[in-house]
Amino acid sequence: MSYTYHAPRSIAELMAVMAEKKDGAMVLAGGTDVMVEIRAGHTPQALVDITKIADLNGIRSDGDTIHIGPTTTFTAIVESPIIREAAFVLAQAAASVGSPQIRNRGTVGGNIVNASPAADSVPALVALDAGLRLLSPAGERTLGIEEFLVGVGQTAILPGEVLVDISFPALAPKTGSAFIKLGRRKALAISRISAAAIIGYDDRELMCTDCRIAVGAVAQSPFRVRTAENIWKNCSLTRNNRDACVQAALQEISVTLGQRASAAYKKQAGPAIIRRAVDAALGQVFGGWEQVL
Ligand SMILES: Cc1cc2nc3c(=O)[nH]c(=O)nc-3n(C[C@H](O)[C@H](O)[C@H](O)COP(=O)(O)OP(=O)(O)OC[C@H]3O[C@@H](n4cnc5c(N)ncnc54)[C@H](O)[C@@H]3O)c2cc1C
């Protein structure tokens, strides 16, 4: 089956195409997922290439809020001084994607909308409390990323809507962050389990002031282990509290893993990955565990 190709140059032109093609339009960004789908026989009526629209690309800081255009590639994220400074966890997640070719073509917007449980940028964006701005000919709305992701390959996006902006608050000073991924192979590995951690600390009180942990590839979508976070947040920065937090995270992921074939393996690997992410996050801003308990 053939399809028409459209390459709007502005958001206004994009909206005109979306209004005309309605349900028949499929957005094309880097194409690393779309082309696989098309080859598998899922052909749209119209392919709408959004990579020619300058306003949908790039990273900027607006006060304490970071904005990323959806067609920004993983390579651009890895190389961005803004992201390295304000959201190191996302730079690490982007660096762990596939191969240089995939990082050069694949976009953060495509990674989100593709909604794979193993998408590498998503746990980082979930931990960062990212908001997603969606635009359609009917209007615009903003959803939190956890609200947006509703299942494997499924999102809350409506026909005609395009993701036009990803934003989140810059991390505060004395806040470290890290992403750890366990894949099957070193290169081109889709994540078998991943964790993104953001840890803030107060050096006078030796308290954990911020604790955000998101896990990937253990449920239909990456999610925050909030019970575990609350065990450590506003408590002392001790190994015991860290371990209690990781243990609680294991309880939370055990529920979502259920009886799937990989559950036994992921229950073993999960706590180790989460602990490594938390320790790496702390290591960024803090001298290491030797300084406390
Ligand atoms: C060999 C290989 C290795 C890979 N390795 C990894 C990996 O290690 N980690 C990982 O996370 N992923 C990996 N992927 C998956 C893929 O590269 C990523 O999901 C990538 O981010 C998709 O981005 P894209 O720009 O190519 O999206 P596209 O393929 O262009 O689009 C993906 C989906 O999102 C929709 N879409 C894209 N942008 C928008 C938008 N702005 N608004 C609305 N809808 C939109 C498209 O319609 C489509 O449904 C790999 C893929 C391949 C082929």
UniProtKB/TrEMBL annotation:
Identify one Pfam family in the record: FAD_binding_5
SMART domains, alphabetized:
CO_deh_flav_C (SM01092)
**The FAD-binding PCMH-type domain covers which part of the protein?**
1-173
**Which Gene3D superfamilies did the record assign?**
3.30.465.10, CO dehydrogenase flavoprotein, C-terminal domain, Uridine Diphospho-n-acetylenolpyruvylglucosamine Reductase, domain 2
UniProt key word Oxidoreductase: yes
**What InterPro entries has UniProt attached to this entry?**
CO_DH_flav_C, CO_DH_flav_C_dom_sf, Diverse_Substr_Oxidored, FAD-bd_PCMH, FAD-bd_PCMH-like_sf, FAD-bd_PCMH_sub1, FAD-bd_PCMH_sub2, Mopterin_DH_FAD-bd
Q: Tell me where on the tree of life, at the top rank, the source sits.
A: Bacteria
Q: Which UniProt keywords apply?
A: FAD, Flavoprotein, Oxidoreductase
Which named protein is this? Xanthine dehydrogenase family protein subunit M
Q: Which organism is it from?
A: Anaeroselena agilis
